[in-house]
Amino acid sequence: MTERPPLTELPPYWLRDNCPCAECRDPRNGQKLFQIDDLPAGLAIAASTELDGRLEVLWSDGHRSRYPLAWLDEAEEGDGRTEQGKRLWAAAEFARGIPEADWEAYLTDPAEQAAVLAAVRRSGFAVLRGVPAVEGQVLRVAESFGYVRVTNYGELFDVRVEPDPNNLAFTDKAIAPHTDNPYRDPVPTLQLLHCLENSATGGDSGLVDGFKAAAILRDEAPEDFATLTRTPVPFVFRDRRTELRADRPLIDVDPLGRIREVRFNNRSIGTLRAGAEDLTAFYAAYRRFAAITLRPELQLTFRLGPGDCLVFDNTRLLHARTAFQQDGRRHLQGCYADLDSLASTLAVLHRRTAALDELAELFAGEGAGEYLGEPVTMAEHMLQAAAAAEAAGAPDHLVAAALLHDLGHFHGALHGRDLMQGQDNRHSHTGADRLAAWFGPEVTEPVRLHVAAKRYLCAVEPGYRARLSEASEYTLTVQGGPMGAEEAAAFAQLPGAVDAVAVRRWDEQAKEPGLETPDFEHYRPLLASLMR
Ligand code: OGA
Ligand code: ZN
Ligand code: ZN
Question: What is the model's pTM?
């Protein structure tokens, strides 16, 4: 956390540009509703106060803004594309194993998926094991976190020996460490290689951290590093149907000088044209950089077997393979994708995890409190309702609704106790509204209607009211008593009515002291799969 400057020193245009009010930002999407030049000249803070964790500002043009102090103190984390925050590696760092996961676990467990995607961000790669070794499956892997980037090679490309190869990749020769498609701008930022067969002698895979190699060059020969960051290199590819060219430096740094992209592919460097001195300097730097990428300590080697899918950052890692004999078959399928959607998928997974952690904390914390004087805590009550739903074979969204139906008792000034003091806390509505941040109507509406469902059941089902617990009978009166005939008929027409009635019946059963149930964690995967 950086020390915040005194409020009077906050740059006014910066602060105003970040005003979160509904006039400045559309509350539905957070997007700004003004242009930067709409702000008046000479804008200044007329007055400011700190109150309840917020900074309140009155502006010289009369506008008022309120900023959470926590927002002022947030650290800059960056977009994750530069060397900042990454783990630059040498091969020895994976002596105990490379980042890998089982495909089934990756598909079913959000935590496993997050770990794989985070490894690609941090270390530049991960291997998925057990991806069915069938053609086209590599596309499913790309689609599991993002979008396939189609190129002149098609949606996917086969890496195997071809009779008339338009690329060295389609022969049995060794391929030195390189990045793919440097002749494209934008370059595909991710590559996937899925092994279908690898029974040939040789044909092992290699990876080198190009950021690490560039960082070593920067340490050992800063002038050479600088030369490579500022020399646009013509990368070219041509075959009968294609002619591609992109002029980009071998090492691209961001405006702050941090390494951001490496392009390295000797096969596709065209003719660089510049003055003799510049050419001499470039080739000296290029050769030095190339030699670093070939240092044995930087070479990570492993073998892909059928069902392995390597996912890697093509703006950072150099990939390679050894030559192979044609004594067996070697067949990989590859495709390209991009880091932006991988990062987005990971961020959304983290957001969901944070929401589930918050729910878990509510169950463990406030949920341990008493539940309207019933012989169970609120958490026990909700866990029992969920267990009853599960035992009844209810669909996932109803198990979730049963589990979360009383969340509205958990927060705010109007706690459950108020309900027992003759005040309706409208907990079914506050709970549903809160859940709407994470779940769709199939979960929120049964929660919203679970109180109405009690009033409905008491009206239409003989004997239902007599079975209510003492507390529930009391709250029934606070909540308006049984429905009249007209209200009950209207309720029955509501979209979530049948589901709400089902949840209500489990709710009624869920007040048994000492009953053993699964805990909150048992429901995490189910909840994660329902989150939007
Ligand atoms: C490629 C490539 C590696 C391999 O197709 O771009 O580098 O293992 N292939 O065959
Ligand atoms: Zn390649
Ligand atoms: Zn309730």
Answer: 0.84
